[in-house]
Predict the 3D structure of the following.
Amino acid sequence: MKKEDKQQFTLRISQANPTELVVILYEMLLCYLEDAKEALQPGEGGSGEPERFHEAVRNARGCLNELLCSLDLKYEPAPALQRLYMFCIRRLARGEQRLDAGPLDEIMRVIVPLCDAYRKLA
């Protein structure tokens, strides 16, 4: 994630209500997934940047863990979201293990509609 993006997220977090915080976490997660995918692209050396990939995956996992911990399972749709987040965590682990962007695309297909829905709520 670029320095400017971090500054923008920090500013937005300082002014956000709880629903907006969820949107920001989704957006940060998507940004880290993009970073991870970019890190796997062949560079001049031909093999990408595995260290950058692992760092982006670690940051994405942090976002997913924060989303997971923020759920109040007494209320709907928290149990369904919990299952989706756990799916994403498992796919993230698989992608990291294999240095594969395929599972990252699967996570994005889950998170983008959720982000859009929460954005409408916010």
